[in-house]
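If your schedule permits, I should be very grateful for your opinion on a structural question. The matter concerns a single protein, recorded as an amino acid sequence and a row of C-alpha cells. Could you please explain, in whatever detail you think fit, how the C-alpha cells follow from the sequence? I set the record out below, with my sincere thanks for your time.

——
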Amino acid sequence: MERAETTSRLLDVGYRMSLFPNPRGYNNEWESVLAASGAIESYKKKYNDIVQKHVEDYLFFDEENPSSIYNCILNARNNALVVRTSFTPESWLAINKAYQEILNFKQNKYSTSDLPNLTEWAIEQVNLFRGTINSLLRNDGYNFLLLGLFVERADNSARLLDVKYFVLLPKPEYIGSNIDNMQWSILLRSLSSFRAFRWAYDGEITATKIADFLILNDSCPRSLSFCIQNIVKHLIDLKCSPPKVNKIYDTLKDLNTTIQQEKIQTIIDYGLHEFVSKFINKISSVDKDIHKEFFN
C-alpha cells in the first residue's frame, strides 16, 4: 500500500510539472517519473515512445507492471487474505474496498484530466488503511508490517527526491531560479509537506533547505532519517529471532550512523543524485536481507 501511495505521488509530481513551461531540462517529466519509479526499462519494452497517457496507464493500471497501483493494491489484498484473522475487520475492509473500486476504475476509460482525481483517490485509500492498523496488537506481526512500511517509504522518498534531480535544469544559471524553486515546491506539495516545511524553516523555500527537510530532518515523517530510525526501532522490537535481527542490523547500522551524522552541505557537495542513488542501493540491500532471513 505504501508503494501504491508513492506511485500516485510520482504521477502527481509528473502531472503538476507538465503544466509548467519546461525549457528542456535533463529529461522530460514523464521520463523522470519512470526513471525514479524504476520502471523505465520495462516500460520501453512495451511502448516505443514516452507519452503521458501511456505512462499513466503503465503506472496506474498495467497488470504487467508489478509496481503499478493496481498490482500493489491487488497484492496487498492477497497478502491480507493470508493473515486476515490477524487483521482488524476495518483493516480488511479498507483494503478490499480499495481493490473493488480500482477494478471499477480499470474497466472504465478515463482522460488525462482525471489523473489528479485518481491519484488523490489512491492516496486517500492508503491513508484509510494506515489509520486502521493503529488498533493492531504490538507484536511481531505489527513490527513486520511497520518494518516493511518504513523500508518502502525510505526507498520511495529517495526516489521522489530523484525525480527532482532528473528535472533539474542542466545549466548552472537555472539553479535557484523561479522554475527550480517551483519544482521543489511541487515536490513538497506532492508529499503533503509544504506547510510543515514552512513551519520548520520559517517559510523560506530554497533547494538546500528542502533537501535538508526531506533527508535529515527527524521531525519530517517522510525524511530518510525518520524512516531509518523507525526501521531500526521495529527491527530491534522483533522477538522471533534475535540472531537474524542482529545480522540484519549489522547491514543497517552503518547507514543509520551515516544518515544521523551527515550534514546537508556535505551531501550537496557530494552530489544529491549520487547520495540518493547510494541510499537507494543500501536500503535495497536491507530489504533483501529481511526477505532472505525471514521469508525465504
Notes: Residues 140-167 form the longest helix (28 residues). The mean pLDDT is 85.
